[in-house]
Amino acid sequence: MPIRNGLEPTERDPKRLRRTAWILVAVMVVGGFAILKAYEAMAKNQAKDSRPAMVHRIRQERDLRIVTQDGKTHDLHELRGSVVLLHAISHKHPEDSNRALEVMKRAAAKFAGRSDVRFVSLIVDPIPAAELTRTLESCAAERGMDPGRWWLGSNESATLHKFMKNELKMHTFPHEQNGRWIFDTSIILIDREGNLRRAVVPQQRGGPPYIASFDFAQAAAWDEQGALTNTERTNQEELEHLLLETTERVLNETKP
Length: 256
Description:
CATH architecture of the largest domain: 3-Layer(aba) Sandwich
CATH superfamily of the largest domain: Glutaredoxin
CATH class of the largest domain: Alpha Beta
């Protein structure tokens, strides 16, 4: 392009160009350092964040309908607005869920004055329809499960087992093996909105926090292995403490 009359090209000043370049480099270095520190601060805050984690939400269209010990039919969705502690149990071999059941009983005693804390036990092994209500009523009476606060319920096995795996996110799909039912005995914590919640345990040495499910069989195995908790409590006691503490936090998040 020809230069217009009266105009002359500007002479380059090497010193000025170098100074501008160094200024740009300094700005990039300072900016990069600031971004790095911001990410570090965010990571530290996340590592210390102990708010209960949400792992899944049970939608009403995927809800579970059960028959309970009083002979009535209920949907789990009816418990929305309450915080729910839920676990599975075998009718033929109830001892398989004893650890979780004892924790559920102590939790029921602790929250006895709270009408917005409810309990649910689901029987995994099939019961003939003609015997269902009588069996549920008998089992509930033996374990002190008041239908006003604690549902003991069941459904057709295929429907129940699918719900346990897909919606309750239980680690093991219920199945029978050598005459015994194999299933996840963890306690499931469900908030007022139907979200599955788990405890978040910050790591003392940094890094992402540990997301803890309330698996008391696993905690018992850790105790047998001699694993320490860095507290005066055993792994089972520490997990129960964590469950009750997490339940309290979920209760205090929102009011019914």
